Amino acid sequence: MKLYSYWRSTTSYRVRIALNLKGLSFETVPVNLVAGDQRSDAFRALNPGQGVPALVLADGTVLAQSMAILDYLDHLVPEPELIPSDPLKRAQVLAAAHVIAMDVHPVNNLKVVNRLKSQFGATADDATAWMRHWMTEGLAAFQALLPQGPRFCFADAPQIADLCLVPQLYNAHRWGVDMTPFSRLLEIEAEALELPAFHAARPENQPDATKG
User: Fold this and answer.
1) Which pLDDT value is given to residue 40?
2) How far is Cα 4 from Cα 129, in angstroms, rounded to an integer?
3) Burial of 59 (0-12, 13-18, 19+ CB in 10 A)
């Protein structure tokens, strides 16, 4: 498999964690979002959505959208289970995961922030304040959905909610979000990053990582 990825992309980060947890080998193909590689004709032909991640299977099939890729990988390799089979637990875990994947990430996406700057005159400080606002609001909602007791978000092993949370916390730290209210989330993050699958997936450990 080939994973078209950008080192700081939180959606790519989710998929890297899942591939590692499932023990699946993959080749990383860097797509520099800042340089605009995603808008090239070649990449648009691969993924019309012009975003990462894109996962190319051995037969050439291309999968896009991180949540769909995670669902595919969970069916392909059932253990460890990322999405619970029990209907109620499944709904609870997915609801939390979707807070980040559908409420927080889309409004903080690079193309949205760039549009705020180019179309509406937002400054760099304005853009940072925008991102901090939506991350703070979303993380508060996410934390409120979690039960007390499990080592990770909903269980003693990571699931899809954890795979969404940890990359989003990377962005929160990067952009200076006040993490004081989120002690439970920081505990989960610390537990997760001790696991080899999460550690190997960290942005700074990717082949295209830079110091910028």
Assistant:
1) 96
2) 30
3) exposed
Percent of the chain with pLDDT over 70: 99
* 180-201 per-residue burial string, b: 16 or more CB within 10 A, e: under 16: eebeebeebbebbeebebbeeb
Residues in a beta bridge with 2: 27, 56
Number of Cβ within 10 Å of residue 10's Cβ equals 23
DSSP character at residue 148:
S
Residue given tokens 């939506």 in the structure block = 134
Gap between the Cα atoms of 48 and 51, Å rounded = 8
Burial of 126 per CB tally in 10 Å (0-12, 13-18, 19+): middle
Q: Whole-prediction pTM value?
A: 0.96
Confidence of residue 7 (pLDDT cuts 50, 70, 90): very high
Examine the pLDDT at 212 and tell me if it is beyond 90: no
CB atoms within 10 A of CB 106: 11
Q: Which one is the CATH code of 87-198: 3.20.20.70, 3.90.850.10, 3.40.50.2000, 1.20.1050.10?
A: 1.20.1050.10
Q: Domain spanning 2-80: which superfamily?
A: Glutaredoxin (3.40.30.10)
Query: Tokens 């340089």 appear where?
Result: 35
